[in-house]
């Protein structure tokens, strides 16, 4: 069983103290007693110890931690914040020496004596090597990593049913699917042929934008275990001194990053889902370079339309559209109590409108924390989009502390025709109102002509009930009412071909003067 049982025991024992701590949070004496009051600092320290445990347990658990950082439906916000700091810098020989893979598959094509290591992750190691007249980059999968990952995924899948038993009812819906979600994301990331295809598609989508650099793929040297690509260097996107030396405006780079990722998700349907600072650099001439496409995803047209609807709903504060979109994305079950959810979403919008600064992380945190009473989960595609938003926005706000996610998103949606601009919306509403009113306005002259004809012939009689006069009655009020009515009638009659409005205006003035005179006389 490739050490499954020993690994299961090892993992269970390492996480047992955390399980006991969480159980005691709910019941001080594990199964009885009141809940404990645990401060946020205590939760943060616990989350930091959990990240250390994940790092020690190896690549699969590092990836689990990174995935959990985008799963507020599974873990509390404090833990997602800490897990988001997990980096997978791993020694070159961890999980087997990647050079043995190169010697096996590329020793005839490349001079491996020119090999130089430049970076290491939990799943792969990156080298540069001479190829013809240039140096290229090689991303090499660690030799034993697939076997280890599959074993650890089986361990996780075996532990999930135990977690479900002790989890809150609202978390069970997500936990029951979490092992499948982990497996889909991690195994995709291990397939370098898939990653190469993603790179080719995204590079082609930005062919007409010389501000974006996606390294070219050497398809003849690429396989499931090795990804060969153009070697592009640049300064880390958060290196303030380097950007200043290049004359790069950090606010412009922040906007470029945001619009680039919005375009990938909403326009192209193929997106890079790991925009942390280590995967983004700026070239000497100020272009944005994107690396590491292992965590990438493709949306089908329906998913893409739903994501567009999600952004549009958030920008417009459209509660009904937001509810329908969350159901369409499988975040909420179709059988959910729509009235109750709608009330919660209205509260979310009210809470957000009361904030001076609205960020993507705040929107997601507020939304999911308010939905905690309903069964919901975050599907893998949506989870990756959440990761793009939270990680990418963090980079943008590091570059520009005043970065406004909502404003940039609204501008993007207008530019690409997903929503109309404010002025265009105003004119559209006015045009709709005029279209609805046109038939009524067109019939008005004929109706007024008919009414005035009846007046002239004495056929129109207005019946009123006599009212007992009082000492406090004001006889001038009738003149005011007549004057106001005639002013309104004159404005309407202006559309008629005959000059009835002149007579109406003259009478209105007469009654207005009579009103003023009676008031002064009284």
TrEMBL record:
Keyword line: Membrane, Transmembrane, Transmembrane helix
Residues that span the membrane, as ranges: 500-517
Domain Protein kinase, first and last residues per copy: 112-453
CDD domains membership: ABC1_ADCK3-like
InterPro entries recorded: ABC1_dom (IPR004147), Kinase-like_dom_sf (IPR011009), Prot_kinase_dom (IPR000719), UbiB_kinase (IPR050154)
Assigned protein family: Belongs to the protein kinase superfamily. ADCK protein kinase family.
PANTHER family the UniProt entry points to: CHAPERONE-ACTIVITY OF BC1 COMPLEX CABC1 -RELATED, PROTEIN ACTIVITY OF BC1 COMPLEX KINASE 7, CHLOROPLASTIC
Name the UniProt record assigns to this protein: AarF/UbiB family protein
Originating species: Natronoglomus mannanivorans
Organism phylogeny: Archaea, Methanobacteriati, Methanobacteriota, Stenosarchaea group, Halobacteria
